[in-house]
C-alpha cells in the first residue's frame, strides 16, 4: 500500500528511519496510515539517534500546508534537531 504524499514526498510514520541510523518513535495520537494504523509523524515528534547524545531528538521540520491537529506533518527529507534526515521506509511513495 502506498503511503500519502505531499508535494511528491512521502509522509513519515512511526518506525521510519533517519540518515544517522535512528528511528522515529512517536507520532500522532489519532491520525494513522494504512490498515495497520501506524501513526503519522509531525514536527516535534521524537526520534532516536545512535550517533548524537542524548540519543533522543525532535523532528525539527514539517509541512506547514499539511497539519495534524495544528502540527505540521513530517515528510521524507525533513530534518531532526540533531541534523539527521528522515527516510520513508517500506511503503514509501511510488
CATH first level: Mainly Beta
User: Uncertain runs with pLDDT below 50, 5 residues or more?
Assistant: none
- As an assembly, this protein is single chain
**Order of adjacent strands in the largest pleated sheet:** 1-2
The residue fraction in helices comes out at under 10%
Q: Summarize the main sheet.
A: 2 strands, antiparallel
CATH architecture group name: Sandwich
Helix and strand element order: EEEEEEEEEE
Strand content: 25-35%
Mean pLDDT: 92
Question: What is the overall number of helices?
Answer: 0
The geometry reads as: globular
Structural class label: mainly beta
| CATH fold description | Tumour Suppressor Smad4
Distance between the termini: 10 Å
- Radius of gyration, in Å, reads 12 Å
Total strand count, please? Answer: 10
Whole-number tally of structural domains:
1
Protein name: PAAR domain-containing protein
Pfam family, one: PAAR_motif
Description:
The chain is mainly β and 94 residues long. The protein has one domain (1-94): Tumour Suppressor Smad4. Helix content is 0%, strand content 29%. It is built from no helices and ten strands. The protein has a two-stranded antiparallel sheet. Strands 3-10 form a two-stranded antiparallel sheet. A two-stranded antiparallel sheet has the order 4-5. A hairpin with a 4-residue loop joins strand 4 (32-33) and strand 5. The chain starts with a strand and ends in a 7-residue tail after the last strand. The mean pLDDT is 92. This is PAAR domain-containing protein. Pfam families: PAAR_motif.
Amino acid at each position: 500500500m502506498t503511503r500519502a504524499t505531499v508535494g511528491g514526498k512521502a509522509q513519515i510514520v512511526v518506525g521510519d528511519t533517519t540518515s544517522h541510523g535512528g528511528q522515529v518513535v512517536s507520532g500522532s495520537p489519532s491520525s494513522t496510515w494504512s490498515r495497520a494504523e501506524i501513526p503519522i509523524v509531525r514536527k516535534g515528534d521524537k526520534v532516536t539517534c545512535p550517533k548524537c547524545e542524548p540519543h533522543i531528538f525532535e523532528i525539527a521540520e514539517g509541512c506547514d500546508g499539511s497539519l495534524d491537529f495544528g502540527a505540521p506533518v513530517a515528510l521524507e527529507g525533513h530534518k531532526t534537531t540533531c541534523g539527521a534526515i528522515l527516510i520513508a521506509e517500506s511503503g514509501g511513495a511510488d
